Amino acid sequence: MTETKIIPIFPLDLVLFPRQELPLRVFEPRYKQLVDDCMLGDGQFGVCLIDENNSVNGWNSPKMVGTIAKISKCEDADLNGLQLNIETLGRNSFKIKKIIPSSIPQPTNYDPLSMEGHQEISDIHEKIGTEEKMYIQAEVEMIPEIDENISFERWQKLVELWKKKIMQQALPQVVDPHSLDHVLEQYYLNTETPTIDYIYSLSAIGAKDPNELQPILEATTMDDLIKNVEELLTVK
Q1: Boundaries of domain holding 203
Q2: Which residues pair with 90 in a beta bridge?
Q3: CB atoms inside a 10 Å sphere around CB 234
């Protein structure tokens, strides 16, 4: 039987891949509570792409597959302690088995960027009890990592697809293929020994929208991963 555990969930407008760094500025009271709880525990929470077609108690709903983020650094972003800067690193991906809604529904006309919005959430939290969780949690199971490297030949085919896509998107401007080699160098993607991390990085610089990256994260075999990346990079 697959082991499950309950973790905090941070829905974001991005896809986090394993071993990818993710700095975040945290300012909403519910996510400050999430970070505080993580710092008292194992420092881990789940990052999921926002599911734009659903909501949980009025808040952004997460996609069902995400990545564990491990906090490596946390500090106040300002003197009044209203914002936090955290640095995280992606670890294993996971699948949500059950969503646990936050204890507070999203207030009408809530503005997460305003002091009024923050005060409103804090007041509601005081009334229901500060031990209650303002953030979404989920029961999740870990997804085994793809334990296989990509061949150099398959990697080169993906790189060529990426180049064709970038040149096609740039039209009518003509892009020198050699300039794209420099882009690959900047992202440390010139290699003769590619790994799965290189595939994730190439996908990230080839996508226009984070929703295009979700199938990459959800792939569980190398063949499925390559297929999904080819779909992403193929000019339609």
Answers
A1: 152-233
A2: 69
A3: 10
